[in-house]
Design goal:
Structural class: alpha+beta
Number of helices: 7
Shape: globular
Order of helices and strands: EHEEEEEEEEEEHHHHHH
Largest sheet: 6 strands, antiparallel
Helix content: 10-25%
Number of domains: 2
Distance between the termini: 42 Å
Number of strands: 11
Strand order of the largest sheet: 2-3-4-5-6-9
Strand content: 35-45%
Amino acid sequence: MGRFLYTNRFTVSEVPSISIFWLNKSKFLKAGIHTGMKSYSSRGKDKGTIVFKVTMTEVNNEYIEIVYLPSSEKKKPLYYKAWITTTSCNFGGNRWWFLCPFVKNGIDCERRVGKLYLLDGVLACRHCHHLTYKSCQESHKYDRIFRGIGIHPKFAENFLQKQPQDATLLEKVGVLFSRDRLFS
C-alpha cells in the first residue's frame, strides 16, 4: 500500500527485509556455512533478490553476508555483512539476533533486532530507517479531521458511538456544524 498524505515514512511491509526468525525456522542457523536466496516483489512487480551466506563456524563469530540483486540491470548489486548474536532465554535455549550494521557519524548502531531492512541502498534496522507500521499510520488517519471540527481525537470514538445506530456519517457531522455553532 502507498503512504498516506500526512506522512512520508515508509512502512516495514513496503521495504525488502531479512528476518533472523525466518533464517532459524529454515535451518540456516545451524553449524557450518549455508547459502540461500529470497526474492521480493511489490504490487506484482519483481523488486529484486537477496542472496545470502550464513557463516556459523566459530562461537561469537557468526555473521551473514548479503548480496542484494536489484531487478533493474542498471543498478549495481549491493554487498553487506551483519553480525549475528544470541541471548539466553529464561527457560533454556538461545534467541538469535542481528546486530544492526548501520553507521551514522562514525557511531555504530549495533542494536539487537530480528529483522534488517534494505532501503535506499542501506541495510539497517527499522529504527535507523525510521520505518513505521501500517497499523500505526491507519490508527490516526482521521485525527486531523476530528481536530478540525473541535473534537479531540481521543474522544472521537466515544462521540461516534453515542450517536443513534441509524444515523449516517453526514448526519453526525451535520450536528457538529449546526447553524448556531458556526455563527456563534
